[in-house]
Amino acid sequence: MIIPLTFENKLYSRVIVSAENLNVAFGEQVLLQKASFEILNSQKVAITGLNGTGKTTLLKLILNRESPIKVATKAKFGYFSQKLDILDPKATILENVLKTAIHTETIVRIVLARLLFRNNDVHKLVDVLSGGEQVKVALAKVLLSDINILVLDEPTNYLDIESMEALEDLLKNFEGTVIVVSHDQYFLEKIATRKLEITGKSIHASKINNPIINHKTTSSKPDEKLLLQTKLSEVISKLSFAQSEEERLTWDREYTKLLAQLKELKK
Ligand SMILES: Nc1ncnc2c1ncn2[C@@H]1O[C@H](COP(=O)(O)OP(=O)(O)O)[C@@H](O)[C@H]1O
Ligand SMILES: [Mg+2]
Q1: Amino acid 230: pLDDT
Q2: CATH assignment of the domain containing 22
Q3: CA 134 to CA 139: how far, in whole Å?
Q4: Model confidence over 159-218: pLDDT tens digits?
Q5: Is the dihedral of CA 242, 246, 248, 250 positive or negative?
Q6: Rounded to whole angstroms, how far apart are CA atoms 226 and 213?
Q7: What element of type H or E holds 206?
Q8: How far is the CA of 167 from the centre of ligand 1 (A)?
Q9: How far does the centroid of ligand 1 lie from the alpha carbon of residue 189, in Å?
Q10: Which residue's alpha carbon is at the smallest distance from atom 5 of ligand 1?
Q11: Nearest to 75 by CA among 120, 33, 17
């Protein structure tokens, strides 16, 4: 899926988040002892560990830039948590996302359509949506706002398979750094290249072997792919300037067709 989720506020530091000798405890309960880790620019990092080992706590410490954690100065975090408190239940799906979006309404609608909110669906109030649908709105809102680091805590809970695949595509195309906590091993293998595992009050870094990502970068037909991608960008731009519903629908159909061809190519 080629949604150009690029942004102006790209980070140029090599190390985006790091800590040495990090100690975390709640009273007697020690979560981390002399833990160290490093997250590099544009890495897609999975944070794993058993329940209660401190994954959510670690994310919050990073977001709050708690000492001794160091965060790149120009970092702008986008945080998704299951609490979904970033959503206004009395506003529509589209309003919720547009309110903080730095992208055009067309891009916003394409992302929402990819997450299976099509046409008039986007005018539904968040209030009436199912749990899984609200998760998707919150994810779209975070993804399309003015950020360069995505921090996602259990983003796949309540998502159906199709939406999960859409999220995988969106994350792979996100230009910034991604830090994600998930129990879903399959999902993590698809999107992340590094793992930080919390175990024994320490953080252990390792590589995630990712046949899918590797396969994608060694496509056998690079020219055809490039051509389709270029066409797709053109269609996206046509979509944003469409003067009538009819014109919009025409380009929308063209978009779907090109996308299907691209997917076919990737197989
Ligand atoms: N504000 C807090 N005060 C006291 N204990 C807390 C607080 N936040 C988290 N904890 C405890 O720290 C442990 C780790 O929690 P959490 O980071 O949510 O784990 P995980 O996300 O890995 O499941 C849990 O035992 C939790 O009860
Ligand atoms: Mg948690």
Answers
A1: 74
A2: 3.40.50.300
A3: 9
A4: 888 899 999 999 988 889 999 999 898 899 999 999 999 999 999 999 998 665 544 444
A5: negative
A6: 17
A7: strand 202-207
A8: 27
A9: 26
A10: 26
A11: 17
* Cβ(51) – ligand 1 distance below 6 Å: yes
Same-domain status, 113 and 134: yes
Whole-model pTM above 0.85? no
Q: 202 φ, ψ to 5°?
A: -120, 170
> Which amino acid, residue 263?
K
Q: Are residues 154 and 44 part of one domain?
A: yes
Query: In terms of domains, do 130 and 226 share one?
Result: no
Distance 157 CA to ligand 2 centre (A): 12
Cα of 248 from ligand 1 centre, angstroms: 48
Measure CA 244 to chain center: 32
State the closest ligand 1 atom to the C-alpha of 59, by its place in the atom list counted from 1.
17
Cross-sheet strand order for the sheet of 29-40: 29-40, 15-26, 70-71
The domain of 114 spans 77-147
Which amino acid residue places its CA nearest to atom 17 of ligand 1?
A: 54
Structure tokens at 9: 């506020």
CB 49 within 8 A of CB 199: yes
pLDDT digits (tens, 9 = 90+) for 192-201: 999 999 999 9
Please, are residues 50 and 170 in contact by the beta-carbon 8 Å criterion?
no
218's tokens: 């060694």
Helix (H) or strand (E) holding 180: strand 177-181
